[in-house]
Amino acid sequence: MPAPTATTATTYMLTQDPSPGTPIEPTSSEIKQGPNPLPKLFQPLKIRSTTFKNRLWVSPMCMYSAEDGFINDFHLARYGQFAMHGAGAVLIEATGVLPEGRLTPKCLGVWKDEHITGLRRIVDYEHYFGAAVRIQLAHAGRKASTIPLSQYGKRPSFRASVDEGGWPEDVYGPSALAYDDNHWEPKEMTLGQIETVQQAFADAAVRADKAGFDFIEIHSAHGCLISSFNSPLSNHRTDKYGGSFENRTRFAVETVQRVRNVWLAEKPLFIRFSTTEWVEGGWTTQDSIKLAEILYQEGVDLVDCSSAGNDTRQKIPVGRGYQVPLATEVKNGAPGVLVGAVGIITDGEQANDILEQDKADAIFAGHEFLRDPTFALKAAQRLGVFVKWNDQYERGRPKTRHSFI
User: Which domain holds residue 197?
Assistant: First the structure.
């Protein structure tokens, strides 16, 4: 038999059934399955045609490791480890729908068909381990053309120049208002540019489907283009895309409509909100509830509830689980809308309590997965749930609850 090549190596992968992170009955009679009913964190969640095996999901986190938007081996290794270790869903980082829509020159992209093959490689690998996989479609707006996070603090400005691969002349937003002195001053978008960007989101959704993604999340948080349209602090337009709540959110609604029109009806559609800006006179949780109700009618299934990132005057009460109440307010205020909770969620008991108390429907964890890719397996261990391990790693399973922690 010839040695495996780069194109044939994946034929050696066998889909694992059940997949890692799925609660199962132990094969040994000496071990008993945990609580009955199962803790909610490890109960499946079905949204449209996608069944999530558990509710502990990997948040999108920019890695600033791409060239011309293309996936590479770093991304395969990074995202693969989460699926191998039982995460219910893996969320690919903010991916630019246009080259000038990237946050930095090193961000991922999905603005051309050539990107599909690399993205498909990630999706296929995640599916071997039974994880649902999602792409976050994004346009950075006035925060575009900046330097990667690893370079912060090493220079006075975040602005990426042309020599550094940036595009200062193609940074735009709802109004000509810079985020701060460290970012480029954007140009106010024309109606033609708004049309172009909205179509780019739709075209990116088509490519995401061709790459095999199970669901999409539209990025409308942290001062990116859509969230900056929503906010009265960054949107000073006087046309149909500015002024009233209806006008400021028109960009978001129309973009969702375009994406939903091309995204298969059986596939879930999520959106990430900055639920509040933490600035007096800015976007509020009540605004998010109102917009969530509108977008639910347009086919959005779940709101991923983050906050802040659009105004430097923000005063954020950071602490353990500090953003969970925002998700709860949206859940209670917009019946029918599923919500995801984020914000310093660091162990299985905390994550499960959020769900058991009906404060959210799913947990998005970011930094804890960076610190420990086995977070889902450890959460199961702490909750006394016996879950399937990756076949190749099964012999590493702890023998007692406390030997893993």
Answer: 28-403
Q: What are phi and psi of 349, to 5 degrees?
A: -65, -45
Q: CATH number of the domain that 390 lies in?
A: 3.20.20.70
Please, are residues 303 and 292 in contact by the beta-carbon 8 Å criterion?
yes
- Give the residue ranges of DSSP H helices in 212-248: 225-230, 245-248
For residue 16, being part of any structural domain is answered with no
Q: Look at residue 84 and tell me if it is in a domain.
A: yes
Q: Which residues of 375-397 are buried (b: 16+ CB within 10 A; e: fewer)?
A: bbbbbbbbbebbbbbbeeeeeee
368 inside domain: yes
- Tens-place pLDDT, residues 10-20: 555 668 889 99
If you ran DSSP here, which 8-state letter would residue 375 be given? H
pLDDT digits (tens, 9 = 90+) for 271-325: 999 999 999 999 999 999 999 999 999 999 999 999 999 999 999 999 999 999 9
Contact 71, 79 (CB under 8 A): no
* Structural domain includes residue 263: yes
